[in-house]
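[retry 2/3] L-lactate dehydrogenase (cytochrome): previous attempt timed out, resubmitting with same input.
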Amino acid sequence: MLSGREVAQHNSRESCWIIVHGKVYDVTEFLDDHPGGSRIILKYAGKDATQEYDPIHPPDAITSNLPPEKHLGPVQPDTVEKVEIRITDEEKERLERIERRPSLSEILNLHDFESIAKAVMPVKAWAYYSSAADDEITIRENHAAYHRIWFRPRILRDVTNVDFSSTILGHRTSMPIYITATALGKLGHPDGELILTRAAAQHGVIQMIPTLASCSFDELVDGARPGQVQFFQLYVNKDRGITKRIVQHAESRGIKGLFITVDAPQLGRREKDMRQKFEAEDPAEVSKAGKDLVDRSQGAARAISSFIDPGLNWADLQWFKSITKMPLILKGVQCWEDALEAYDQGMAGVVLSNHGGRQLDFSRSGVEILAECVEHLKEKRGLSFPNEKFQLFVDGGVRRATDVLKAVALGATAVGIGRPFLYAYSAYGPEGVDRALQILHDEFEMNMRLLGAPTIKDVLPEMVDASNLRSHIVAVPSDSLFNTNYEVMQHALLKVPAKAKI
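[retry 2/3] L-lactate dehydrogenase (cytochrome): success.
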């Protein structure tokens, strides 16, 4: 085993070793390629970087990105130099804000979680979770689109008891929602996605495990209750051997559906996140590295997603069908023509989604695409929705049970919810997610009654007016809760002048 003293000697740009989870890695040649910049690595040169590494990397990021000869072996724990953590004034203020959070009983809706998370999360973590592509038009449209759908409630129906349970790919869910895949869960809480695994079990909903989780895949499967249904979201690796191993391992662990992401051949530009990365970089270090040669514009996202295959195409779907018996769903379909092709290729369904507004700005909302898919797939293939053999899912912009009911009325089997659960546990930990799911439960119960629908099957197309859904210039009342939480994008700013020397 290496000694901490020996590791500590490699603390410069010329020779940079770091410790992660008790193992030593030589990252000297990786410094200039690190999307987060070299400064943060050099801060931990010769020291234990685990605490900084864990929240912003999937567990295998370092082992996957460094060649085997850079894996130097274990270190003697009692010899490792401790990193002195200095609490800045900004961090002290953030910790004080955490102490001033309202009680959970005062959190009345999912918007409230977002508001509190914005106040108490570290700035970089908030920027990563909340950022979206370019001018962030699509992320706002995802939510606004639901405001162009109005209800047509029915009256004098017996709604003494309402049942909003449903099934997704044949598996029961207590509500027509699922917890959709989101990356880097430990940015918001040390337990990361495990919080969602446990909450999904407690509330009878299904969790979609992300490829880029902060927790390992097996950790999340092991954390599930016996019989708990889980799905898996897949980014397809350029190395099909790796993809095959991941898929077949997921199937062997009991995963019930494979959601293949198809809307990310290249990452979108998330400028709020990017500004954080530029601010974190030491200009002197950029100069040393050769600023014209180092592109860090994609920030942390680039580090964890460079393996994704931009060559993925329709012909690959037959290969997927040959390596697994899991139902295959394409995640990120954005027009009816591609939904039709997915049906013809034997997929079990599609998620109508624009990646939470994080990819192509001015992509349309999932719920708008849903309406056109239902119309054209009925016309072309005689399909009616919801449909057990080919299921339509939607995600993006959902903040109320009424949003979900609108999508269900238009033909969706279920709706994926992502960011609100991240905000819930970033603000309040596991109890926050428990409260968020209970709020949705209560909203479903009330709104099903008011809609005149005793069961989910009674939520029909006639119960909504979506005639203005495709019009993007219709004036609707402003959603003040959503708009208050939205953080306006910033221009590039002048540098703050250094304090005059006395």
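[retry 2/3] L-lactate dehydrogenase (cytochrome): Confidence is low (pLDDT under 50) at residues 278-296.
[retry 2/3] clearing retry counter.
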